[in-house]
Every structure is written in C-alpha cells, then in structure tokens.
Amino acid sequence: MNNLRQLDLNLLVTLDVLLAEHNVTRAAERLHFSQPAVSVHLAKLREIFDDPLLLPGPRGMRPTARAEALREPLREALAVLERAVAPASPFDPAEARQTWRIAATDYGETSILLPAMAGLRAQAPGTRLAVVEMVPARIARQAEQGEIDLAFHTVEGSPPNLRRRTLFAERYVLAGRVGHPALQRRPTLKRFCALEHVIVSPDGGGFHGITDEILGERGLERRVVLSVPHFLFLRSVLESSDLVAMLPERLVRGCAGLRVVESPVALPGYEMAMLWHERSHRDPAHQWLRERIVQAV
Q1: Distance, CA of 275 to CA of 161 (rounded, Å)
Q2: Domain identity same for 102 and 78
Q3: Quick one: 182 and 227 in the same domain?
Q4: Is 227 helix (H, G, I), strand (E, B) or coil?
Q5: Which of 16, 81, 141, 171 is a plausible cystine mate for 269, CB 3.0–4.6 Å?
Q6: What residue stretches are annotated with the HTH lysR-type domain (predicted)?
Q7: Model confidence over 105-114: pLDDT tens digits?
C-alpha cells in the first residue's frame, strides 16, 4: 500500500467488520451488503495489503498475522474518523471550558461586553474571555487565522468578508459634569462653541472630528482643548472639570457623575456590529456566545 489516497475508506470499514466476525456472511449482514460484495471487498484488500488477511478455518475464517497486527490500529483509526465526522454535539455552557478572544475598543467593552458579562459568567462559569485591542485594519486577518472569535466595530467600517450582525444604533449627546453651569439645559449653538471641549482621537493627538466638520460648514468653530485616545479616560476628565464632550449615548448612560443634554449640533449616528469569520459561523459554542451578546444589548 504505497498511497493512502488510493485506498477506499469503505474497504477499511469492511475489513474492520470481517476481523470482528471472522465470517463473510455475518459481515455482510452487519454492513447491509450482499455476500458477493463483501467477497469482492476482501479480494481488493488482499491485493492492497499483499496478504490473505483471512483464511478458511474449521470455525469460520482465521486472521493471518498481518490481519491481527492491523486489528487494533484499524479500530482506533476508524473510531477517530467516526468522531471527526459525527454531527456537532449540542453546546452545554455549564460544562464548557472555552477561551474566547474578542477584539474591542473601550467603547465596545463598556457598551457591549459589560452588559453581557454577568450572564456569561452565570451560565458558562468554566469559560474564559480575553479582550484584545481592536485595530480595524487587522480584524479580517485575525478572524481568518483564528486569533479572535469576535470583533465589535461600526457597520460602516466593517470588513466586507466577515459575517456581521448589527447590535444597535448609537447617537451622540453632549455631556459634562453634574452641576456644570452651561448644561442646566440645552445650550445655544453660540454657547456650545464657547465651551471647552474634549475630543477622542483613536489615532492620537487629533483636535478635529465630525462635530468640527459640521460646524465648519456653517462657518463656526468650537474650542477643543484636550485630545485623548480613550473614551473611559474622557469620562473621568469630564467628571472632574468644566470640560464637555460629544459622546455616544450608551457610554454615558447611567453615569451618576455626568449631566447629559441634547446637543445644538445634530451629528449623524452609527450602527455597531458584531463581526466573525465564516470558519466559526456554525460552531455551536460560537453561536451560543453570539446569542448571549445579542440578548444582553
């Protein structure tokens, strides 16, 4: 047998049954084949292995030394193949030991993962969750290579070759500390521009965003005095100063230290999506994780 690719797997199944039954008729019954079909298989096996394999005896057929040597390795190999091609078993979160890796920004952590955490820990206590830095340019490659299971990103910026499910629509609000004198009500556009603003610049150091573009179309300009890379640091800044910021509403929802009002500048919102690769789309554990996140948000 010089090339495994030339061997019909059905022949090995027949040999396994013949080595168990030592009888062509009984083997044919177990395999639901005709007796001549099993005899043909045996003839082919003898040619492939260059050995008689089974010889006539007083009480059925007697395996040769070569056949005896094949018995256990063949049974083990077929058992492995049976498990490999068996239908996926239902996912049991209570017994699961998966480690999931999710790419998210601090916004995704707060607005998506945080609401899902309690349910994940309660229902799948044996699992682990690793949150890794979300770099948009790397998402597709990381998902394809199995480095991440999920990513959270805006629908508009999602790679086209990944599976996607929209989680929610987000909008912007104006936020500052509780008791901020300029946020007792919705400020006028003039007052808005006069306030000192903080901006989130994911790439670092930027002082210009969509708010400034819209203001610029009207010939207006606001005072951006601080640029930070993360939303969560921005929240701390707002709570401890008179700076204000345009923030996604879910990020400041329920923050006792912040006052939220409608902005005099209407910004376009966005949709947040959950992304994953086709390779894990039908995996029961992955499906369970995705559904838990959808339910949480």
Answers
A1: 10
A2: no
A3: yes
A4: strand
A5: 171
A6: 7-64
A7: 999 999 999 9
